[in-house]
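Reading is simple: each integer encodes one residue's backbone shape. The lines below illustrate:
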Amino acid sequence: MRRWLRWLIPLSAVPVLVLLAYGFRFNPREVPSPLVGRPAAPFTLRAFGGGPFSLEAQRGKVVVVNFWASWCYPACYEEAPVLERGWRAWRERGVVVVGVDIQDTAEKAQKFIVDFGLTFPNAPDTAGKVSIEYGVYGVPETFFIDRRGRIRAKHVGAVTDDVFRTWVEQLLAEPA
């Protein structure tokens, strides 16, 4: 009996180690979102500029929704200029970029916006409701929404110029 108990503890660790090894095979950025292909959850937030931003009011446009925070370094710092360039390059073609600031203070978020010269709408999700609706588990996360209001892609991590351009051009090429 005693001999058997000596092996019980090491053997009980085997299933845990197998599960960990299985889980480490996957890149969390590649976990598919169950929201892709579904209608984007509507939301209205008060932008840092003072006015309301409503996702529903953007129907008919390609919308890029980016969840970020001022403390998100270096990824949010790397992607902020990319998002601003994308906004400036494609807004005349019916593309809207909106930043949703989560788990942050208003002062630090506004400083981030000023430091990067962001001109696209940014709004705090103070209650966390929007980030919960979108299943955000970290920042940055970006959702690409088509003209019909459907989530077509989710990107985890800093958005690059190539990622932005690829999705925006694809969604603009589709019929409205």
Summary: The CA atoms of residues 64 and 131 lie 14 Å apart. The chain has one domain: 34-173.
